Amino acid sequence: MPRWDDAPMVGRASELATLLACVDRAAAGRASTVLLSGDAGVGKTRLLSEVTARTVERGVRVLTGHCVDLGDVGLPYLPFVDLLRPVAADPSLAPVSVADPVLAPLFAGRPGSSPPVQPESEGRDLNRPLPHRAAPPPVDDGRLQLFEAVAALVCELAGAGPLLLVLEDVHWADRSSRDLLRYLLARLADEPVAVIASYRADDLHRRHPLRPLLAELVRLPGVERLELSPLPDADVGALVRRLGSDVGPLPESVVEDVVTRAEGNAFYAEELLAAGLHGEALPLALTDVLLSRVEQRSPAAQQVLRVAAVAGRRVRHELVAAVSGLADGDLETALAEAVHHYLLVVSDDGRYRFRHALLREAVLADLLPGERVRLHAAIAAYLARVPEAGTAAERAHHARESNDLPGAFSASLAAADAAGGVGAPAEQLQHLETALALWTAVPDAAARAGRDQAALLLETASAARTVGEPHRAVALLRSALEGLPSDAGPEVRARIHYTLAQAMVRVEDDSGGYRESAAAMALVPAQPPSKVRTWAAATHARMSYAVGRVEEAEAAADEALAAADALGLDSAWADIAVTRVRARPGADLGEVRARLDEALTRARRSGDVEVEMRVLFNFATVTFEAGRIDEALEWTRHGTARARDLGVEWSHYAAELRHLHVTTLYMAGSWDESLAEADVLARVPDMAAHVRADGLLVLVGRGDPAAQERIRWARTLIPRLGAHVLLDLVTAASEIDLAAWEGRPQQAVDVALATYRRLREEWDDDHLGVLRLAGGALAAVADAAELARRDGDPAGADRWGQAAAELVEAARSAVEIYCGTYGDTMGVEACAWQVRIEAEAARARGEVAPELWRAAVEGFGFGHVYERARSRWRLAEALLATGDRAGAAEQAAAAHEVAVRLGATPLRTALEGLARRGRLDVAGVRTVDVGAVLTPREAEVLRLLAAGRTNRQVGAELYISEKTASVHVSNILAKLGANGRTEAVAIAAQRGLLP
User: Do residue 216 and residue 258 come from a single domain?
Assistant: First the structure.
């Protein structure tokens, strides 16, 4: 794995600009200084190495000196000895100063040697004036000559050109070096010298000797301080992915874990990544670094840190006082020591917290097991005595860690109730699962919980569904079934069966869901009507529709609606109403809206959040499928906001609403908002990964290199999730488009057909997503077929024609399967893609077919801004081929305006190339005169290169020698800035230099 300081720098753009501005001021003749501070490992050295490299590129000499931690016995002037090594090695850099005997000990690398005290009449002229900012502070006579000599040396070096002096880790500098630094910064004024001095902010305790010097230096003109803050999470994530690139794409879970724990520290991120890849909890090297600062503190301060580490990231003063066992005076002193040495900091709420989370981890790791258990027990006892001092979650944690399992069980249930009460389902799930894990270890668990284990499993499964963990919900419900006692009543069993059916449909297991709902129906009689039977019937209707048992579904739906009305079960009525709406595609939109309106009213009246989300999702879906993009956006905005307010953002239907929202924004041409919504949260459940993958649509459309990384992420996730159709579809469509834009037609075909086959396995009836895949892949195939025909390659043209036929057949098969089940009820987008496929297939056969492309433009006119523009591009090509230049220009101009507005670089580039080749009048596109770029002979050679001719063939056709042809080819490559023949042809086509 590469080190972070070897990789290209991530982030720090503003800090780098500040330091380079310091260098620029020196190059302009004004001395400038930056005092660079930051915690250990935050990236000071990496930033300085980048500044050094860029400074050298600008022709500025750089001298670097390092301070070393030698404890109380330091070597005087050690960083300046290091700084002057290049001068000692090459005396010609400063011949006058090198001859000065005062500097001899520094040049000889003996910083401890005392410089000779000489009369002013001997050696260097001390009266030689040096520019100064302010009167330098007094130093003793023995050192004055040395200081003056060093200043003169710096001036001599700067006389040959601007100079950058870098002093690293000055928090370790000895007193003499600090005094010399003070003298230089006060003495140098108008010399072209920049100074950057770095130090560790976390090492500067209250009485550190560098503190008063820093306060003094910042009052000098031209001296500024720059604090290097922790890297933002996004930059740390980019750094971690880059560091792990040599072992392949990293799992997002690893990246997120490192980002969270590193808290912006690049060195910590590197060490944690190495530990993560090799299975270590916290690497020993990092633990040693962190604990070295703790071990320097007094025993009382260390005790305070141990208590704080066990208590949590933040801890109240009262808890530390109650648990530490220290007297009040000793406690105050110990806390002050920990705070003043930047081990603890005081939060705004008055609580103490560790300066860095990994410091707490290191302290915890250093505790003996018995000591840790005793501290947890003491904290748990304190929280039990003073409940207002902490939360139920904290009590549960400390009870569990102190092996008080009954106490941990009760506290976990209390914490789950508290989390549910404040709309935090993820935390609720966590606490419920903890309670489940403790169930068998607590003898009176049912009495403490007030319910049996099956009821707790149902509750936990409900929380899992709410946070978007359907696989976990299925596993919990199966456990509930398996764990039911033999005397469990039929209603309890039926409830678990139909709840399991509802969960199974979330993981694309319709047949399994049907079996479970049928089992629920068999357990409870229809008469008299009951809540369990009503929900069993509602669920069974939905499952029966899903597997094509329409008559069975209709009967169950009728029963469920009648029973729901009779019993006043509004949520069940709303649920079955939505099921019927979706089971009857093609129904009148007004009737559908009326039915959904009533369902929404009933769902909200019942307080059933899941059913309400289902209704909102279907409101958005029916308007989307009808091509009413603006109306669909209104529903997706409302639905996602409602889900956020209710704290169920990643439940199944809430996640699908966000997916639809991102997709609809993309279609409407609101690409910035679409990408922002796809990336609104860094952490999403795996089953909602398609929401983040939706951002690929914009990234690929814009030609953003980040698309490749996101595709790799999605591809690693798909096999682990199994049947996740939407994630598969979005990723495949984006991968196909990217391959098409990059000229990789075979990959586009392979991805499209492989995804089609998976869809046939996962979905029995609805494969219309294949239309999008086939249309994208056909674009790449048609391009390849055109190229083969142009190059005189009939075999290649036939091969691509066969690929096109296979894609068309897959699309037609998908339509036949859908229509065989649902009739002629395809949505407007599917119809548009169907026309687009026919147009691309004609292009693959070599047919111009402007009428098909005009139909594609009209098909996407419902509101798909980007695909309509792409269809206009192809229509412009077709019109140009038929000689309709005015029509071609009109279509190209309309598409170009959209491409510019969206930032769709690949489409814009293609349109501008078309405009230049066809000499079309498109605003913002300047046509190129071939004669202004290439000679007539070079233009002829380029034409033959585009036809795939070798240099020998070019020479034969133009009646010139192969060597002369080679010279022309070299000239063409140089003029176009191309690295090879293929790239030259591509650039020429883009610039309109080819017919």
Answer: no
